[in-house]
Design a protein that fits this description.
The protein is of the alpha+beta class. The chain contains six helices and eleven strands. The protein has a four-stranded mixed β-sheet with strand order 3-11-10-7. A three-stranded antiparallel β-sheet has the order 2-1-4, covered by helices on one side. It has a two-stranded antiparallel sheet with strand order 5-6.
């Protein structure tokens, strides 16, 4: 991140002013501050949810300042929003549908331009089985009862081989 400036929607001042830093693989960065001091705008700018007034954001030596959310995702960025129920999941969808929210457009989940529900279901079953093998849960039933939707989505993020994870207060390069 280089000389990042993000305008505030609530104030006349900028929410983020000239922030610069580097994060290397294996590092975790945490931004601390009281609510309203720009953390939300910063995370939204990094993830592409908010436009950057000026500055530069790079991921794996590629400029992603104006990249789409999908391109950021393809480059390995993933985001766990502050309010996972409001922004991270579609609560009316089944677990398997939520697990492909960031990947539904991939060919393996498509059939003649429509979502292939069988492929989505098989993918969800693989993720749950992988969770069982890793000792996260002991059965699919436990996954659904104990794991909850948001744990399932967080688990899916790690299984998908991301290189950068952004949370409401963390930035981690894996």
């Amino acid at each position: 991140v280089e000389d990042l400036i993000v305008a505030s929607k609530k104030h006349k001042n900028n929410a983020i002013k000239n922030i610069s830093f580097d994060v290397k693989s294996g590092e975790i960065v945490c931004l601390a501050g009281i609510e309203g001091n720009g953390q939300t705008e910063f995370v939204q700018a990094l993830t592409g949810l908010e436009k950057v007034a000026s500055g530069k954001i790079e991921l794996n030596n590629q400029d992603i300042t104006h990249a789409s959310i999908r391109k950021r995702s393809k480059l390995g960025m993933s985001h766990i929003p502050e309010d996972r129920h409001k922004y991270g999941l579609i609560l009316d969808f089944r677990l398997e549908q939520n697990l492909v929210l960031q990947r539904y457009w991939e060919p393996k989940f498509q059939k003649h331009g429509f979502i292939d529900n069988q492929s989505v279901r098989e993918y969800a079953e693989e993720l749950i089985e992988d969770s069982c093998k890793k000792g996260i849960v002991s059965s699919q039933r436990e996954y659904l009862v104990k794991g909850t939707f948001q744990d399932a989505v967080i688990n899916m993020i790690f299984i998908c081989g991301i290189t950068m994870l952004i949370g409401s207060c963390i930035l981690m390069l894996l």
